[in-house]
Amino acid sequence: MSSFVRKPFDPITVSSTDKRRVAYFYDSDVGNYSYGTGHPMKPHRIRMAHSLIMNYGLYKKMEIYRAKPATKQEMCQFHSDEYIDFLSRVTPDNLDLFQKEQVKFNAGEDCPIFDGLYEFCGISGGGSMEGAARLNRGKCDIAINYAGGLHHAKKSEASGFCYLNDIVLGIIELLRYHPRVLYIDIDVHHGDGVEEAFYTTDRVMTCSFHKYGEFFPGTGELRDIGVGKGKHHAVNVPLRDGIDDATYRSIFEPLIKRIMDWYQPSAVVLQCGGDSLSGDKLGCFNLSMRGHANCVNYVKSFNIPMMVVGGGGYTMRNVARTWTYETGLLNNVLLDSELPYNDYYEYYGPDYKLDVRPSNMHNANSPEYLDKILTQIYANLENTKHAPSVQMNYVPPDMEDFGDVEEDTALAKDTQGGSQYARDNMVMGDNEFYDDDAQAEGINSKNIEDNSKETENRTSRVSIMQPLFEDSNKEKKENDVTSTNVPFSTLKNGEGEHKK
Ligand SMILES: [Zn+2]
């Protein structure tokens, strides 16, 4: 029997009775960081998305937080001390002193050392860790961090515009409460850093949909399924150029359903890289905004605690549009197609619409090819029956479980340069997003008040996790002979196809 059945692309719908609580993490500094002129990765797109999200009025639906930046100690729950030490000390001005380390940690062309790099990493990681901490405590049902999603970063290596793997850090936090976490990646590139981190454990299942073949990072073959205890807990969907909405949906939905049934995760992390959209500067897929957003809506429909992070995306206006539309869906709102006035309105001309349209590019993913992929993945899953009753590892209790926790722990003071109260007041300092209507409803003060209760989450986030995967990198590296080391920024749309 054929596994792949091409279904039509139905209109996206939301439920008005769905009352899930959404926590959205944003740091107003994030848009100020720059990888350098000419570099395709632009943190500014996160600020553009935020401005659209606010001007659509979504602050009325969700709670908005500025997370405490990830500390060195937190970063080192995954990354090596010497790598994080390097990131914290290197600057464009003292680069000469770190020539050896630059080579060792792969800093350079794709991953330049820019001003404020370490703070940028702290913001990205802090949002994902705090999002996970809120999900753990049942304080929200969905956490969003578009400054996160940097899936290529390795334990001791920068890669593909990523330095700190906020996703791995967020998942480690989730594992303190959740026996099984599912990671889904819809970026056009393989989610190699996350896969590698959890390649030998069955407590995290990774599933990446990506372009494969003469494309960065060169990994993510169909036959890579995990090793040891992690065997069958990595799923790779290698795709070809030009995949469209209907085709993507026809492979995404049945596969995710199958994995949900098989693995029964208690939490899910969705990486929403926007470089799988049509017209992306580095990507080669042909998804419209709705085709991309359908994945978000579908994962949400399983109704389990969900973390949504950003990722790639190099045509800024389309990334901002799509993440805004998806934020609407996560709040059960179908946003109007007419863009509201916002700080970056001129970017959205000439149509000023909330839409990303597909092009007429060729779809190189034949039904036969996709059938082969699905059949193989299903066979792999049926091969072993997953035991959902997997024992939880020992989880260290939260600091607060030992009794009252002081508002400002020494660590918090040390890393913040100010009191918790002062920081809480920094949250949502930008009143310009609040119209009179919202002020009358007291939304602004509600958010600040609620943030002042965040201390418990912030301290709980700090407690130390047992090392889960100390040696997972080793095993993967030894087995990994597939990497072709194609530089990220130099290989654009289809260019690599001519190399053969
Ligand atoms: Zn990407």
From TrEMBL:
* E.C. number: 3.5.1.98
According to the UniProt record, what class of enzyme is this?
A: hydrolase
Where are the catalytic residues? H152
Positions with a binding annotation for a divalent metal cation: D187, H189, D275
| Ranges of Polar residues composition bias in the record | 481-492
- Provide one Gene Ontology biological process annotation: positive regulation of macroautophagy
Q: Its principal location? A: nucleus
Give GO MF terms, alphabetically: histone deacetylase activity, hydrolytic mechanism; metal ion binding; transcription coactivator activity; transcription corepressor activity
The segment(s) forming the Histone deacetylase domain are 39-327
An example GO CC term for this entry is: Rpd3L complex
**Could you tell me what reaction this enzyme catalyses?**
N(6)-acetyl-L-lysyl-[histone] + H2O = L-lysyl-[histone] + acetate
The ranges of region (Disordered) come to: 443-500
- Extent of Basic and acidic residues compositional bias: 447-459, 471-480
Q: Tell me which residues bind substrate.
A: D110, G160, Y314
- Source taxon at top rank: Eukaryota
Give the matching Pfam families.
Answer: Hist_deacetyl
Q: Which family does it belong to?
A: Belongs to the histone deacetylase family. HD Type 1 subfamily.
Question: What protein am I looking at?
Answer: Histone deacetylase
Q: Which organism is it from?
A: Pachysolen tannophilus NRRL Y-2460
